Amino acid sequence: MSQAPFARRELTVTGMDELGAYRVLRVSDPDGPEPQPGQFAMLAAGEHWGGGEDERPYLPRAFSIARRSGTESHFLLEDVGPGTRRLCELRPGDRLWALGPLGQGFSLGGRDSDRRRRAILVGGGVGIAPLAILQDTLLRAGGGPGAGADRVTVLLGFRDGPRTHGAALLREARVASDDGSAGHHGLVTDLLQEELRDDSHAVVYACGPAGMLEGVRALCASAGIPAQLALEAGMACGFGACFGCVVPRRGGGYLRVCVDGPVVDAAMLEHVEEHAGGAGGIE
Length: 283
Known about the structure:
By secondary structure, the chain is α/β, with parallel strands linked by helices. It has helices at residues 82-88, 112-115, 129-140, 161-164, 188-198, 210-223, and strands at residues 9-19, 22-28, 40-45, 50-51, 56-57, 61-64, 67-69, 72-77, 95-102, 118-124, 152-158, 173-177, 184-185, 202-207, 227-230, 246-248, 254-256, 263-265. It is globular.
């Protein structure tokens, strides 16, 4: 698993692409470690990173690494608060502080039985971010666990029309929308249930809001299908020191999302806590 040097890096913004309600932040990161799908970075703008008259600094924000293209790292943003708004304002040439890659990503080796299964990627909202780099990795490896490229199925769910444009981040995705503006009118877990009914010999990789992840966990648990869930929780440090991102684990005790996750085996959880939905980042 790639781990970042224990120091943040000052990077240069190379682009900010519009994707409906989302933005794709591209930064030059030639010296950064190669990330594993599902890992994240702690980001902070190089300037004007704070609020109030004295610009009291914000905490860095945790974002899944959405793609690695040459020496560029890509992050999927949505303006949902002061921190994400400032990051969405960045333009080419601006500076950005980054610490990453951090955490545990998706395990693609897994058990021998998992490697022979079809890969189903399930994402919701801005939580589709880590599935893009995961799809890239699976396709480079020949399509997934022991299979061809036709054995990677992508299911994405969004709230409304402007957000469905995010599906362009991945290839050949089936889309569900809450308002019926694109694809299936309903939940992405409806599509997952349909896929598993047609072919249950699968392994599921998921990231999205807590309700979606709990639906995925429950569906896979009842069908005996292995699943890995990318969680998110409020993080102050990103490397396990503050214990601010803990979630309860099955059988007692807690997991620190930043170091024991963000990707965890669904079997480790009794249920997905409401605050532990996976996404591209927090406010």
